[in-house]
């Protein structure tokens, strides 16, 4: 299967807010297994608490919105480079930083890893655009929750998981959320625009156990599936 693996920044840091190298290594071994099984994938990583911390520092210095996003992007590149380090020889040695580079390199045998691309969006938009460029039909969005809930499960533990929803319904859920540097929602507006025009399905799974990635790809075990409407 050809797909984009989006690894949420929340998975890459431990409870002390330090980069969780064990998690990087576990993700890398899952990716190695998928590649050996013949799957084709591009990886996109978020910036997690490092992005949030840098954005806060930028705000204190009086940075404008674009500069705040650039600080967030810098954090995603740090995470992308560490993922490349964990993947060792199977990865292209540096993060892919432009769409042109992705277009040029996507048929290489190496695993490509991206962080952010440009201000005004989140890495979910990057993952959507990467899926469009490489012609993937699936965007596997791996975060620290099972999928999309009726309410934010971190604030409302009783919130129910939605196992399947249409893109229109996801748009509706997302429209009420803020789009801010360091805090783009579940799926930002630009990501949804790209998903809509490219006809990509989004599958959400919980990556706290990285084996869930294998279960999703090989057995269709998905927390939430967003179908193309
Ligand atoms: P994300 O918001 O995507 O990372 O990027 P995250 O917080 O780890 O989110 P999840 O958990 O992966 O979904 C970090 C910040 O980098 C900037 C934004 O400010 C974003 O909030 N960014 C990222 C961009 O400006 N452009 C990009 O293409 C990507």
Characteristics of this structure?
229 residues; alpha/beta; Carbamate kinase; 7-stranded mixed beta sheet; two-stranded antiparallel sheet; 8 helices; 43% helix; binds uridine 5'-triphosphate
Topology:
Layout: E1 2-7, H1 21-36, E2 40-45, H2 48-60, H3 65-87, H4 99-105, E3 112-114, H5 123-134, E4 138-143, E5 148-149, E6 161-162, E7 164-166, H6 167-175, H7 189-198, E8 201-206, H8 211-219, E9 224-227
Bound molecules: uridine 5'-triphosphate.
Q: How many individual helices?
A: 8
Which residue ranges are poorly predicted, with pLDDT under 50 across at least 5 consecutive positions?
none
By secondary-structure content and strand pairing, the structural class works out as alpha/beta
* Count of distinct strands: 9
**Integer average pLDDT:** 95
The top-level CATH class is Alpha Beta
Helix content: 40-55%
Q: CA-to-CA gap between the ends?
A: 22 Å
What report would you give on this structure?
- It is a single chain.
- The protein is of the alpha/beta class.
- It has one domain (2-227): Carbamate kinase (3-Layer(aba) Sandwich).
- It contains 8 helices and 9 strands.
- The chain has helices at residues 21-36, 48-60, 65-87, 99-105, 123-134, 167-175, 189-198, 211-219, and strands at 2-7, 40-45, 112-114, 138-143, 148-149, 161-162, 164-166, 201-206, 224-227.
- A 7-stranded mixed β-sheet has the order 3-2-1-4-8-9-7, sandwiched between helices. The chain has a two-stranded antiparallel ribbon with strand order 5-6.
- Helix 1 (21-36) links the parallel strand 1 (2-7) and strand 2.
- Helix 5 packs parallel to helix 7 (189-198) and helix 6 (167-175) packs antiparallel against helix 7 (189-198).
- The longest helix is centred in the N-terminal third of the chain and has 23 residues, at 65-87.
- The protein is globular, with a radius of gyration of 16 Å.
- The mean pLDDT is 95.
């Amino acid at each position: 299967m050809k797909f984009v693996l989006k690894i949420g920044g929340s998975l890459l840091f431990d409870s002390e807010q330090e980069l969780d190298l064990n998690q990087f290594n576990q993700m890398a071994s899952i990716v190695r297994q998928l590649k050996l099984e013949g799957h084709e994938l591009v990886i996109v990583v978020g910036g997690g608490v490092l992005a949030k911390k840098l954005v806060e520092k930028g705000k204190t210095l009086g940075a404008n919105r674009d500069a705040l996003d650039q600080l967030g992007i810098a954090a995603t590149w740090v995470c992308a480079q560490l993922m490349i380090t964990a993947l060792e020889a199977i990865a292209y040695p540096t993060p892919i930083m432009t769409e042109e580079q992705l277009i040029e390199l996507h048929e290489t045998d190496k695993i490509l890893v991206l962080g952010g691309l440009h201000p005004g969006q989140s890495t979910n938009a990057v993952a959507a655009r990467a899926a469009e460029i490489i012609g993937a039909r699936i965007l596997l969005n791996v975060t620290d929750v099972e999928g999309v809930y009726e309410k934010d499960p971190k604030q409302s533990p009783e919130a129910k998981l939605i196992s399947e929803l249409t893109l229109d319904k996801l748009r509706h859920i997302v429209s009420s959320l803020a789009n801010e540097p360091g805090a783009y929602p579940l799926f930002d507006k630009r990501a949804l625009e790209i998903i809509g025009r490219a006809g990509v399905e989004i599958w959400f799974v919980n990556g706290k156990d990285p084996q869930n990635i294998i279960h999703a790809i090989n057995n269709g075990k998905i927390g939430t599936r967003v179908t193309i409407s």
